[in-house]
Amino acid sequence: MHRGDLDGLAAAAAAADGVIHLAFKHDAMFAGDFDGAVAADLRAIQALGDALADTGKPLVTTSGTVLFAFAGLHDTLTEDDTLTEDDTLDAGPRIDAENADAALTERGIRSSAVRLPPTVHSPLDHNGFIEGIGRGLNLPRSASRRPRPKPTSGFLSAHAQADNPSSSTLTRHLLGWKPTQPSLIDDLGQGHYFDAPPTTPR
């Protein structure tokens, strides 16, 4: 099936017990056509919705917490507030797709969206560029108070500099989710991001 084949996508969805939609045209986005990639994602969700309407089947899509930072939602929060599952926006790039997914519950679909964070972390990740790294490098605390530099590397730079405090409290309650791995700050404190890279034998 061609990646732009909405009829094929709908037929596959109709034959499935449920759908998890993870696709996004990142190649178009990195080529400078972010609007085109966003529009294609919205069309795909609409096609899936048409195929699954009144079936009671689940449809899971993905969104991102950082979208709300880019839209300025965090500017309205107090210093101690975080983004929660109840926070929504009326419109915006990719937010339109999340809202379209949420609206499918009215069409007899068990729809939900997983908001992904802009970064992930683990002992296997040695490319960290997130909070707390300054401590591991013994940088002075005052460095964190310097004016934020303007983005210089496009898409990645904007994500790395976004202030994106978010909470998973409601998700933990609804799903009985009890994370057991280290939190981001605890993981950074273990030091593996700052270990010397292994040398390659010659």
Keywords:
NAD(P)-dependent_oxidoreduct, Rossmann fold, 3 strands, 202 residues, NAD(P)-bd_dom_sf, single chain, 36% helix, three-stranded parallel β-sheet, mainly alpha
CATH class: Alpha Beta
Q: The CATH topology, please?
A: Rossmann fold
> What CATH architecture would you give?
3-Layer(aba) Sandwich
The total of helices stands at 9
Radius of gyration: 20 Å
- What percent of residues are in strands? 5-15%
Could you explain how this protein is built, in words?
InterPro entries: NAD(P)-bd_dom_sf (IPR036291), NAD(P)-dependent_oxidoreduct (IPR051783). Residues 136-169, 181-202 are annotated as: Disordered. The chain is mainly α and 202 residues long. The protein has one domain: Rossmann fold, CATH 3.40.50. It contains nine helices and three strands. It has a three-stranded parallel sheet. Helix 1 (6-15) packs parallel to helix 3 and helix 3 (34-52) packs parallel to helix 5. The longest helix has 19 residues, at 34-52. It is globular. The termini are far apart. Mean pLDDT is 78; it is low at 143-147 and 149-153.
Map the helices and strands.
Blueprint: H1 6-15, E1 19-21, H2 26-30, H3 34-52, E2 58-64, H4 66-70, H5 95-103, E3 110-116, H6 133-136, H7 154-161, H8 169-175, H9 184-189
Parallel strand pairs: 1-2, 2-3
Helix pairs in contact: 1-3, 3-5
